[in-house]
Task: inverse folding
C-alpha cells in the first residue's frame, strides 16, 4: 500500500470518528436547551440513550457485514445514515421526531466504527497499525474536548440547530475519501447472520472480564456527559459555553484512561482467542459454524527403550527366542 493511499485512509477514518465524537459532546451540552424548547424534559435521557442503543445493537451486525462485503460499503452506508440523521435533527418540530433522527445517527455510528477499524487492520502492518490506532485515539479525544465548547457557543449564540451542522464537513470529507478503503465482492447469501459465532466469542474469560470493566467505565462516563451539563446549567445557572469548558478536563481524563487501559491485559485476551484464521476459512465464512476453539492434541509418549511391546503377535508369524 502506498503512502498517499495510507494517508487518505487514515484521514477518512479519523474524520468519520471525529464527527461522531464532536456530535456526542456538542449535543450533550445543548440537550438542556433542546428539551426546554421542545417542551419534553421527561425525554431528556433518550437524547443520548437512543443513540447509544441504536449503535450498540447494530455494531455487531455491521462488523459481520464489513468482513464479508469489505469495509468500504459499510463505511459509506454508515456515513449516509449519520448525515441523514444529522440533517433531520435540525428542523425537528418535536422531541419524538428529534429522537427518531438521533436513532438514525446511532445506526450510522454503529457502521462507521467497525468499518474504520477493519480498514486499518486490513491495509496496515502491525507497526503502522499501532501508530494509526494511536492517531485515531488522539483525534477522538480532541473531538470530544472541542465538541462541548462548540455546542455551548452555538447554544448561547446562533442557536443549537445550526450548531448541529458543524459536523457535516467532516462526514463529507470521509465520504469523499472512502474510495481508499478496501472492498470485496459479495459472497453468496452474504446477508445471513451467524449468531453462534457471536455467542461462542463470549466463552473467552478475558473478553468477559474486559467487557465488564468497559461497561462500568462507559456507564460512568456516559452519565457524566449526559447529566453534568444539566446540573451546571439548570442548578448552578452557568452558561452553556462555560459548562462546555468545564467538561473539557473530564473528557481529557477519559481519553487518558482509555490510553492507559491497553495495559489491562490485551495480550492475555489475544492469546486466549488464538491466532487469527486465514481469509476464507470456516470461521470467516457466512455459513461457518462460528468461533471454534482449538483443542490441544497431546503427542504420543516416547517408548522407553527397556519397555517391551505388549501387542499380540500377528497370525502366521513365529516368535522364537530372542537372539543373543
Result:
Amino acid at each position: 500500500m502506498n503512502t498517499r493511499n495510507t494517508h487518505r485512509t487514515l484521514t477518512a477514518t479519523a474524520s468519520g470518528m471525529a464527527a461522531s465524537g464532536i456530535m456526542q459532546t456538542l449535543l450533550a451540552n445543548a440537550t438542556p436547551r433542546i428539551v426546554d424548547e421542545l417542551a419534553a424534559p421527561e425525554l431528556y435521557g433518550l437524547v443520548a440513550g437512543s443513540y447509544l442503543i441504536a449503535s450498540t445493537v447494530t455494531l455487531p451486525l455491521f462488523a459481520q457485514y464489513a468482513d464479508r462485503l469489505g469495509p468500504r460499503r459499510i463505511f459509506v452506508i454508515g456515513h449516509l445514515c449519520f448525515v441523514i440523521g444529522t440533517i433531520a435533527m435540525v428542523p425537528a418540530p418535536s422531541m419524538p421526531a428529534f429522537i427518531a433522527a438521533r436513532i438514525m445517527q446511532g445506526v450510522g455510528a454503529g457502521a462507521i466504527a467497525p468499518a474504520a477499524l477493519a480498514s486499518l487492520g486490513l491495509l496496515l502492518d502491525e507497526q503502522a497499525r499501532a501508530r494509526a490506532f494511536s492517531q485515531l485515539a488522539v483525534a477522538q479525544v480532541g473531538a470530544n474536548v472541542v465538541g462541548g465548547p462548540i455546542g455551548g457557543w452555538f447554544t448561547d449564540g446562533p442557536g443549537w440547530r445550526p450548531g448541529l451542522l458543524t459536523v457535516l464537513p467532516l462526514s463529507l470529507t470521509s465520504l469523499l475519501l472512502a474510495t481508499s478503503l478496501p472492498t470485496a465482492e459479495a459472497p453468496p447469501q452474504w446477508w445471513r447472520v451467524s449468531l453462534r459465532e457471536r455467542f461462542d466469542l463470549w466463552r473467552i474469560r478475558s473478553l468477559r472480564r474486559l467487557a465488564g470493566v468497559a461497561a462500568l467505565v462507559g456507564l460512568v462516563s456516559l452519565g457524566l456527559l449526559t447529566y453534568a451539563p444539566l446540573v451546571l446549567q439548570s442548578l448552578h445557572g452557568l452558561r452553556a459555553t462555560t459548562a462546555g469548558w468545564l467538561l473539557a478536563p473530564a473528557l481529557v481524563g477519559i481519553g487518558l484512561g482509555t490510553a492507559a487501559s491497553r495495559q489491562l491485559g490485551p495480550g492475555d485476551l489475544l492469546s486466549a482467542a488464538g491466532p487469527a484464521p486465514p481469509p476464507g476459512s470456516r470461521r470467516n465464512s457466512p455459513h461457518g459454524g462460528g468461533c471454534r476453539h482449538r483443542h490441544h492434541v497431546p503427542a504420543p509418549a516416547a517408548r522407553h527403550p527397556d519397555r517391551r511391546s505388549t501387542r499380540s503377535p500377528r497370525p502366521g508369524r513365529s516368535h522364537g527366542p530372542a537372539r543373543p
